[in-house]
Design brief:
This protein is 22% helix and 32% strand. It is of the alpha/beta class. The longest helix is centred in the C-terminal third of the chain and has 14 residues.
């Protein structure tokens, strides 16, 4: 008879793949940011918004690096990363045609609830990719979604800023810059930064989100659910914002990882459960958690 512990250990069996993935494209952007597209058909077929991959950056470096999936389609996936440390510096050397070892998709994804179709997507820095992915899932879902993305960065954004033709009620018209990809999908987005980038809101993502939420009436606000990914201080603020408005909120946590498949327990965080506080692994129990359960 299989015990509960054994069932937990086997939960991710046959759902995570190892692929030798060919580099299809590798774009460099200001701020040491890079967008990497990899041919990975098994991972692409199983991936969902909020999941990530564990990539071998170079043959000289055995430790992999976890990177959130930004897009997955056909037989490829895309990731956005910012160079921090030697591993990701080595990854920047990869060019089209090179092969990297990829482990994925890993983790629990965001869960879409059709009863709350007014989705507020909040992404900060390298937390932007999961918000792009969930927006892509929503636009392909037969259900009618009404997402708004609020994206923040303190380095230049990894895309050319574009003035949006999609109006957003409650946000000043001078805050007009958007992400071209989301604009092309018909999904409104607004950008924030303290660096005074053209057309961006001068403040934090939570400041702009608060302004938007204040402008909604009670019925509209009852249809909102928040999805967020970014640095921990930002996510804590998002969780506080959601609690203040009594809104459901899912957050994708960022933690340092070694194995990324639940074996080393090096990425644990404290989560409130029905049985009391418990240490949960960000890699396989998350990275997506209910913001109200995270012990910040």
């Amino acid at each position: 008879m299989i015990t509960a512990a054994q069932q937990e250990a086997q939960r991710n069996r046959d759902t995570i793949f190892v692929e030798e993935s060919k580099v299809l494209s590798h774009e460099a952007w200001p701020g040491d940011q890079h967008i990497l597209r990899l041919q990975a058909p098994k991972c692409a077929a199983a991936a969902r918004a909020g999941m990530f991959v564990h990539i071998t950056c170079d043959e000289e470096l055995p430790m992999r690096r976890p990177l959130s999936i930004m897009r997955a389609a056909d037989d490829w996936i895309e990731v956005l990363y910012k160079v921090v440390g030697e591993g990701l510096h080595l990854l920047t050397r990869k060019t089209p045609g090179d092969v990297v070892s990829l482990l994925g998709p890993i983790g629990q994804p965001f869960r879409l609830h059709h009863e709350r179709s007014k989705a507020l997507l909040i992404g900060g820095g390298v937390g932007i990719p999961p918000m792009i992915y969930i927006a892509d899932e929503m636009r392909q879902d037969p259900h009618e979604w009404h997402p708004l993305a609020i994206l923040g960065s303190e380095v230049p954004f990894p895309f050319e800023l574009q003035s949006s033709s999609l109006t957003v009620s409650g946000i000043d018209e001078t805050v007009s810059s958007t992400m071209p990809l989301l604009e092309n999908w018909g999904i409104p987005a607004r950008l924030t930064s303290l660096q005074r980038f053209a057309g961006c809101y001068d403040g934090y993502v939570t400041d702009l989100a608060d302004r938007w939420l204040q402008n909604l009436d009670d019925t509209e606000r009852d249809g909102v659910e928040i999805f967020a990914c970014g640095p921990t201080p930002m996510l804590r603020s998002v969780a506080e914002l959601a609690a203040r408005y009594k809104l459901p909120c899912q957050v994708s946590l960022e933690e340092f990882m070694a194995c990324a498949v639940g074996g080393c327990a090096g990425c644990t965080v404290m989560i409130e459960t029905p049985a009391g506080p418990a240490m949960k692994r960000v890699c396989v129990d998350g990275p997506v958690f209910d913001a109200a359960t995270v012990v910040w």
